[in-house]
Design a protein that fits this description.
The structure holds two protein chains of two kinds. Chain A is an all-alpha fold. Helix content of chain A is 82%, strand content 0%. In chain A, helix 1 (2-15) runs parallel beside helix 4 (60-100) and helix 2 (22-34) packs across helix 5 (103-131). Chain A is globular and about 55 Å long. Chain B has helices spanning 6-19, 24-38, 44-56, 61-104, 111-133, 140-154, 159-172. In chain B, helix 1 (6-19) crosses helix 4, helix 2 crosses helix 4 (61-104) and helix 3 packs across helix 4 (61-104). Chain B is mainly alpha-helical. The longest helix of chain B has 44 residues, at 61-104. Chain B starts with 5 loop residues before the first helix and ends in a 13-residue tail after the last helix. Chain B is built from seven helices and no strands. The chains are: A mainly alpha, B mainly alpha. Chains A and B meet through helix 1, helix 2, helix 3, helix 4 and helix 5 of A and helix 1, helix 3, helix 4, helix 5 and helix 6 of B.
Chain lengths: 171, 185
Protein backbone atom coordinates (compact mmCIF):
# COMPACT_ATOMS: atom_id res chain seq x y z
CA UNK A 1 0.00 0.00 0.00
CA UNK A 2 2.77 2.42 0.96
CA UNK A 3 4.70 1.56 -2.20
CA UNK A 4 1.61 2.10 -4.39
CA UNK A 5 1.02 5.43 -2.68
CA UNK A 6 4.66 6.45 -3.09
CA UNK A 7 4.92 5.51 -6.77
CA UNK A 8 1.65 7.25 -7.62
CA UNK A 9 2.46 10.44 -5.75
CA UNK A 10 5.96 10.44 -7.25
CA UNK A 11 4.51 10.25 -10.75
CA UNK A 12 1.94 12.94 -9.96
CA UNK A 13 4.63 15.14 -8.43
CA UNK A 14 6.69 14.86 -11.60
CA UNK A 15 3.74 15.72 -13.88
CA UNK A 16 2.24 18.63 -11.97
CA UNK A 17 3.50 21.43 -14.17
CA UNK A 18 1.58 24.64 -14.56
CA UNK A 19 1.38 25.92 -11.02
CA UNK A 20 0.24 23.03 -8.87
CA UNK A 21 -3.48 22.94 -9.64
CA UNK A 22 -2.89 20.04 -12.03
CA UNK A 23 -2.37 18.09 -8.80
CA UNK A 24 -6.09 18.15 -8.06
CA UNK A 25 -6.92 16.51 -11.36
CA UNK A 26 -4.04 14.00 -11.18
CA UNK A 27 -4.74 12.97 -7.57
CA UNK A 28 -8.44 12.62 -8.29
CA UNK A 29 -7.86 10.41 -11.32
CA UNK A 30 -5.25 8.12 -9.75
CA UNK A 31 -6.35 7.82 -6.14
CA UNK A 32 -10.13 8.22 -6.42
CA UNK A 33 -11.17 7.04 -9.90
CA UNK A 34 -8.56 4.36 -10.57
CA UNK A 35 -7.36 3.02 -7.22
CA UNK A 36 -10.43 3.82 -5.07
CA UNK A 37 -8.17 4.67 -2.14
CA UNK A 38 -10.66 7.28 -1.02
CA UNK A 39 -14.18 8.38 -1.92
CA UNK A 40 -15.00 11.55 -3.89
CA UNK A 41 -16.47 13.05 -0.72
CA UNK A 42 -13.26 12.39 1.24
CA UNK A 43 -11.31 13.91 -1.64
CA UNK A 44 -13.28 17.16 -1.40
CA UNK A 45 -12.70 17.12 2.37
CA UNK A 46 -8.98 16.76 1.66
CA UNK A 47 -9.09 19.86 -0.56
CA UNK A 48 -10.87 21.68 2.27
CA UNK A 49 -8.03 20.72 4.62
CA UNK A 50 -5.54 22.03 2.03
CA UNK A 51 -7.43 25.32 2.02
CA UNK A 52 -7.67 25.80 5.79
CA UNK A 53 -4.03 24.90 6.44
CA UNK A 54 -1.39 27.54 5.62
CA UNK A 55 1.18 27.06 2.86
CA UNK A 56 0.69 25.25 -0.46
CA UNK A 57 -2.61 23.48 -1.20
CA UNK A 58 -0.58 20.34 -1.81
CA UNK A 59 -0.40 19.75 1.96
CA UNK A 60 -3.81 18.16 1.42
CA UNK A 61 -1.80 15.09 0.38
CA UNK A 62 -0.83 14.60 4.05
CA UNK A 63 -4.53 14.25 4.85
CA UNK A 64 -5.00 11.81 1.96
CA UNK A 65 -1.92 9.80 2.94
CA UNK A 66 -3.15 9.56 6.51
CA UNK A 67 -6.58 8.35 5.35
CA UNK A 68 -4.91 5.66 3.24
CA UNK A 69 -2.14 4.43 5.54
CA UNK A 70 -1.87 6.47 8.75
CA UNK A 71 1.10 8.67 9.63
CA UNK A 72 3.54 6.70 7.42
CA UNK A 73 1.07 7.21 4.55
CA UNK A 74 1.06 10.96 5.15
CA UNK A 75 4.85 11.13 5.12
CA UNK A 76 5.12 8.91 2.03
CA UNK A 77 2.48 10.87 0.06
CA UNK A 78 4.09 14.25 0.75
CA UNK A 79 7.60 12.95 0.05
CA UNK A 80 6.45 11.48 -3.25
CA UNK A 81 4.75 14.69 -4.34
CA UNK A 82 7.52 17.09 -3.30
CA UNK A 83 10.57 15.04 -4.30
CA UNK A 84 10.42 15.59 -8.10
CA UNK A 85 10.03 19.36 -7.94
CA UNK A 86 12.66 19.67 -5.21
CA UNK A 87 15.18 17.81 -7.37
CA UNK A 88 14.14 19.78 -10.46
CA UNK A 89 14.69 23.10 -8.66
CA UNK A 90 18.10 22.09 -7.35
CA UNK A 91 19.21 20.94 -10.81
CA UNK A 92 17.77 24.03 -12.52
CA UNK A 93 19.38 26.35 -9.98
CA UNK A 94 22.76 25.65 -11.52
CA UNK A 95 21.67 25.45 -15.16
CA UNK A 96 18.93 28.09 -15.34
CA UNK A 97 20.80 30.44 -17.67
CA UNK A 98 21.05 27.70 -20.28
CA UNK A 99 17.46 26.50 -19.88
CA UNK A 100 15.98 29.99 -19.83
CA UNK A 101 17.15 30.56 -23.39
CA UNK A 102 15.38 27.45 -24.64
CA UNK A 103 12.11 28.75 -26.07
CA UNK A 104 10.63 25.27 -26.41
CA UNK A 105 10.77 24.68 -22.66
CA UNK A 106 8.75 27.82 -22.00
CA UNK A 107 6.33 26.94 -24.80
CA UNK A 108 5.81 23.46 -23.37
CA UNK A 109 5.11 24.92 -19.93
CA UNK A 110 2.67 27.38 -21.47
CA UNK A 111 0.87 24.50 -23.19
CA UNK A 112 0.54 22.66 -19.89
CA UNK A 113 -0.60 25.79 -18.00
CA UNK A 114 -3.33 26.24 -20.58
CA UNK A 115 -4.42 22.61 -20.41
CA UNK A 116 -4.56 22.74 -16.60
CA UNK A 117 -7.52 25.12 -16.90
CA UNK A 118 -9.44 22.40 -18.74
CA UNK A 119 -8.26 19.71 -16.31
CA UNK A 120 -9.36 21.73 -13.30
CA UNK A 121 -12.73 22.46 -14.92
CA UNK A 122 -13.30 18.75 -15.46
CA UNK A 123 -12.28 18.02 -11.86
CA UNK A 124 -14.76 20.59 -10.54
CA UNK A 125 -17.53 19.14 -12.71
CA UNK A 126 -16.72 15.71 -11.31
CA UNK A 127 -16.80 16.89 -7.69
CA UNK A 128 -19.60 19.48 -7.74
CA UNK A 129 -22.64 17.16 -7.97
CA UNK A 130 -21.61 15.46 -4.75
CA UNK A 131 -20.46 18.52 -2.84
CA UNK A 132 -23.19 20.95 -3.86
CA UNK A 133 -26.15 18.62 -4.36
CA UNK A 134 -28.72 20.49 -2.31
CA UNK A 135 -30.01 24.00 -2.86
CA UNK A 136 -28.37 25.18 0.37
CA UNK A 137 -24.94 23.75 -0.47
CA UNK A 138 -25.11 25.09 -4.03
CA UNK A 139 -25.96 28.46 -2.47
CA UNK A 140 -22.88 28.26 -0.22
CA UNK A 141 -20.69 27.40 -3.22
CA UNK A 142 -22.13 30.34 -5.20
CA UNK A 143 -21.68 32.74 -2.28
CA UNK A 144 -18.05 31.67 -1.78
CA UNK A 145 -17.38 32.09 -5.51
CA UNK A 146 -18.77 35.63 -5.51
CA UNK A 147 -16.97 36.62 -2.29
CA UNK A 148 -13.60 35.28 -3.48
CA UNK A 149 -13.81 36.99 -6.87
CA UNK A 150 -15.30 40.28 -5.63
CA UNK A 151 -13.74 40.84 -2.20
CA UNK A 152 -10.40 40.33 -0.50
CA UNK A 153 -11.72 37.98 2.19
CA UNK A 154 -9.26 35.15 2.87
CA UNK A 155 -10.38 31.77 1.45
CA UNK A 156 -9.61 30.11 4.78
CA UNK A 157 -12.14 32.40 6.49
CA UNK A 158 -14.76 31.54 3.86
CA UNK A 159 -14.23 27.79 4.29
CA UNK A 160 -14.53 28.03 8.08
CA UNK A 161 -17.59 30.29 7.81
CA UNK A 162 -19.16 27.80 5.41
CA UNK A 163 -18.71 25.12 8.06
CA UNK A 164 -20.76 27.24 10.46
CA UNK A 165 -23.40 27.94 7.80
CA UNK A 166 -23.45 24.20 7.10
CA UNK A 167 -24.13 23.54 10.76
CA UNK A 168 -27.18 25.84 10.54
CA UNK A 169 -28.51 24.90 7.08
CA UNK A 170 -27.26 21.46 6.07
CA UNK A 171 -28.44 19.21 8.88
CA UNK B 1 23.95 41.46 2.97
CA UNK B 2 23.54 39.35 6.09
CA UNK B 3 24.72 35.79 6.08
CA UNK B 4 21.88 33.59 7.32
CA UNK B 5 22.61 30.22 8.87
CA UNK B 6 20.69 27.08 7.95
CA UNK B 7 18.73 27.54 11.18
CA UNK B 8 17.85 31.15 10.20
CA UNK B 9 16.51 29.89 6.87
CA UNK B 10 14.52 27.14 8.57
CA UNK B 11 12.97 29.55 11.07
CA UNK B 12 11.97 32.20 8.51
CA UNK B 13 10.37 29.64 6.22
CA UNK B 14 8.65 28.06 9.23
CA UNK B 15 7.12 31.46 9.94
CA UNK B 16 6.02 31.76 6.31
CA UNK B 17 4.73 28.18 6.30
CA UNK B 18 2.69 28.79 9.43
CA UNK B 19 1.23 32.18 8.54
CA UNK B 20 0.78 32.32 4.77
CA UNK B 21 -2.75 31.76 3.55
CA UNK B 22 -4.50 32.58 0.30
CA UNK B 23 -2.92 30.64 -2.54
CA UNK B 24 0.39 30.59 -4.40
CA UNK B 25 0.72 34.29 -5.15
CA UNK B 26 -0.10 35.35 -1.61
CA UNK B 27 2.61 32.98 -0.34
CA UNK B 28 5.11 34.29 -2.91
CA UNK B 29 4.41 37.86 -1.81
CA UNK B 30 4.99 36.83 1.81
CA UNK B 31 8.30 35.14 0.92
CA UNK B 32 9.42 38.23 -0.99
CA UNK B 33 8.66 40.46 1.98
CA UNK B 34 10.46 38.27 4.52
CA UNK B 35 13.50 37.23 2.50
CA UNK B 36 14.11 40.21 0.20
CA UNK B 37 12.66 43.35 1.76
CA UNK B 38 12.86 42.68 5.51
CA UNK B 39 16.12 40.75 5.71
CA UNK B 40 17.91 41.59 2.49
CA UNK B 41 19.21 38.02 2.18
CA UNK B 42 18.72 38.12 -1.60
CA UNK B 43 17.86 40.87 -4.06
CA UNK B 44 14.79 41.40 -6.22
CA UNK B 45 16.54 40.02 -9.27
CA UNK B 46 17.29 36.76 -7.47
CA UNK B 47 13.67 36.57 -6.35
CA UNK B 48 12.45 37.06 -9.92
CA UNK B 49 14.72 34.22 -10.95
CA UNK B 50 13.22 32.05 -8.20
CA UNK B 51 9.75 32.68 -9.61
CA UNK B 52 11.02 31.93 -13.12
CA UNK B 53 12.47 28.60 -12.05
CA UNK B 54 9.37 27.76 -10.02
CA UNK B 55 7.30 28.25 -13.18
CA UNK B 56 9.51 25.86 -15.13
CA UNK B 57 9.41 23.07 -12.53
CA UNK B 58 6.47 20.89 -11.46
CA UNK B 59 4.84 21.35 -8.08
CA UNK B 60 3.54 24.37 -6.19
CA UNK B 61 5.12 27.64 -7.33
CA UNK B 62 5.68 29.03 -3.83
CA UNK B 63 7.34 25.80 -2.66
CA UNK B 64 9.69 25.62 -5.65
CA UNK B 65 10.61 29.29 -5.22
CA UNK B 66 11.36 28.67 -1.54
CA UNK B 67 13.60 25.70 -2.33
CA UNK B 68 15.49 27.77 -4.91
CA UNK B 69 16.01 30.68 -2.48
CA UNK B 70 17.20 28.27 0.23
CA UNK B 71 19.59 26.72 -2.25
CA UNK B 72 21.01 30.10 -3.25
CA UNK B 73 21.62 30.97 0.39
CA UNK B 74 23.12 27.74 1.72
CA UNK B 75 23.22 25.21 -1.10
CA UNK B 76 21.61 21.82 -0.38
CA UNK B 77 21.22 22.34 3.34
CA UNK B 78 19.58 25.70 2.71
CA UNK B 79 17.20 24.12 0.20
CA UNK B 80 16.28 21.42 2.73
CA UNK B 81 15.81 24.02 5.48
CA UNK B 82 13.45 26.07 3.28
CA UNK B 83 11.53 22.97 2.12
CA UNK B 84 10.98 21.59 5.62
CA UNK B 85 10.39 25.01 7.15
CA UNK B 86 7.67 25.88 4.64
CA UNK B 87 5.83 22.57 4.93
CA UNK B 88 6.06 21.24 8.49
CA UNK B 89 3.55 23.59 10.18
CA UNK B 90 0.82 22.75 7.66
CA UNK B 91 1.83 19.08 7.72
CA UNK B 92 1.28 18.87 11.47
CA UNK B 93 -2.04 20.73 11.14
CA UNK B 94 -3.19 18.46 8.30
CA UNK B 95 -2.33 15.40 10.41
CA UNK B 96 -4.34 16.82 13.29
CA UNK B 97 -7.30 17.38 10.96
CA UNK B 98 -6.94 13.87 9.53
CA UNK B 99 -6.89 12.43 13.04
CA UNK B 100 -9.97 14.42 14.10
CA UNK B 101 -11.68 13.47 10.83
CA UNK B 102 -11.08 9.79 11.48
CA UNK B 103 -12.43 10.09 15.01
CA UNK B 104 -15.33 12.50 14.57
CA UNK B 105 -15.92 12.84 10.81
CA UNK B 106 -18.88 10.49 10.68
CA UNK B 107 -20.67 11.91 13.74
CA UNK B 108 -24.10 13.33 12.82
CA UNK B 109 -23.23 16.64 14.48
CA UNK B 110 -20.02 17.01 12.44
CA UNK B 111 -21.43 16.01 9.05
CA UNK B 112 -23.17 19.37 8.36
CA UNK B 113 -19.91 21.23 9.03
CA UNK B 114 -18.07 19.00 6.53
CA UNK B 115 -20.86 19.54 4.00
CA UNK B 116 -20.38 23.29 4.44
CA UNK B 117 -16.63 22.91 3.88
CA UNK B 118 -17.23 20.82 0.77
CA UNK B 119 -19.62 23.36 -0.73
CA UNK B 120 -17.06 26.11 -0.02
CA UNK B 121 -14.36 24.10 -1.80
CA UNK B 122 -16.48 23.99 -4.96
CA UNK B 123 -16.91 27.77 -4.77
CA UNK B 124 -13.18 28.27 -4.26
CA UNK B 125 -12.23 25.96 -7.13
CA UNK B 126 -14.68 27.80 -9.39
CA UNK B 127 -13.06 31.09 -8.40
CA UNK B 128 -9.57 29.75 -9.13
CA UNK B 129 -10.86 28.43 -12.45
CA UNK B 130 -12.43 31.78 -13.28
CA UNK B 131 -9.15 33.58 -12.60
CA UNK B 132 -7.15 31.09 -14.67
CA UNK B 133 -9.64 31.02 -17.56
CA UNK B 134 -10.01 34.78 -18.04
CA UNK B 135 -6.63 35.33 -19.78
CA UNK B 136 -7.51 32.54 -22.23
CA UNK B 137 -10.71 34.16 -23.42
CA UNK B 138 -9.02 36.34 -26.04
CA UNK B 139 -6.86 33.59 -27.46
CA UNK B 140 -8.62 31.02 -29.66
CA UNK B 141 -5.67 28.60 -29.62
CA UNK B 142 -5.62 28.58 -25.82
CA UNK B 143 -9.39 28.11 -25.70
CA UNK B 144 -9.19 25.11 -28.02
CA UNK B 145 -6.36 23.53 -26.01
CA UNK B 146 -8.15 24.05 -22.68
CA UNK B 147 -11.43 22.75 -24.15
CA UNK B 148 -9.68 19.69 -25.61
CA UNK B 149 -8.11 18.90 -22.22
CA UNK B 150 -11.48 19.32 -20.56
CA UNK B 151 -13.14 17.00 -23.09
CA UNK B 152 -10.37 14.41 -22.82
CA UNK B 153 -10.84 14.23 -19.06
CA UNK B 154 -14.59 13.82 -19.38
CA UNK B 155 -13.78 10.88 -21.68
CA UNK B 156 -11.66 9.50 -18.83
CA UNK B 157 -8.30 9.98 -20.49
CA UNK B 158 -5.50 9.93 -17.91
CA UNK B 159 -4.71 13.59 -17.01
CA UNK B 160 -1.00 12.69 -17.01
CA UNK B 161 -1.27 11.90 -20.71
CA UNK B 162 -3.20 15.13 -21.32
CA UNK B 163 -0.37 17.08 -19.63
CA UNK B 164 2.30 15.43 -21.78
CA UNK B 165 0.29 16.05 -24.97
CA UNK B 166 -0.34 19.65 -23.92
CA UNK B 167 3.41 20.16 -23.54
CA UNK B 168 3.89 18.91 -27.10
CA UNK B 169 1.03 21.14 -28.31
CA UNK B 170 2.64 24.12 -26.59
CA UNK B 171 5.89 23.51 -28.47
CA UNK B 172 4.11 22.97 -31.82
CA UNK B 173 1.98 26.10 -31.41
CA UNK B 174 5.16 28.14 -30.86
CA UNK B 175 4.12 31.55 -29.49
CA UNK B 176 0.43 31.35 -30.33
CA UNK B 177 -0.50 30.55 -26.72
CA UNK B 178 1.26 33.63 -25.34
CA UNK B 179 -1.10 35.99 -23.51
CA UNK B 180 -1.99 38.94 -25.72
CA UNK B 181 -1.77 41.63 -23.09
CA UNK B 182 0.90 41.17 -20.41
CA UNK B 183 0.49 38.91 -17.42
CA UNK B 184 1.05 35.49 -18.91
CA UNK B 185 -1.11 32.44 -18.55
Amino acid sequence: MLLTLFLNTLKIGALSFGGGYAIISLLQYDLVTQLHLLSPGEFVDAIAVGQITPGPLLIMAAFIGYRVAGVPGAIVALTGLFLPCTLAVVVLASTYEKVQGLAFVERAIRGVSTAVVGLLAAAVIGLAPQASATLASAGIAAAVFVLVTRTKIEPVALVLASGVVGLLLLR
Amino acid sequence: MDDPTVLDIFLVFTKIGALSFGGPYAILAYIEREVVRERGWLDAEEFAKAVGIATLTPGPIAYSAAVYLGFRLRRLRGAAAAAFGLTWPAFVLALAFAFAYERFGSLPSVQPVLKGFEAAVIGLLLAILWRMAKPLARNPWALVLAAASFGALLLRVNPGIVILLAAVAGVLLRDRLAAREGGGV
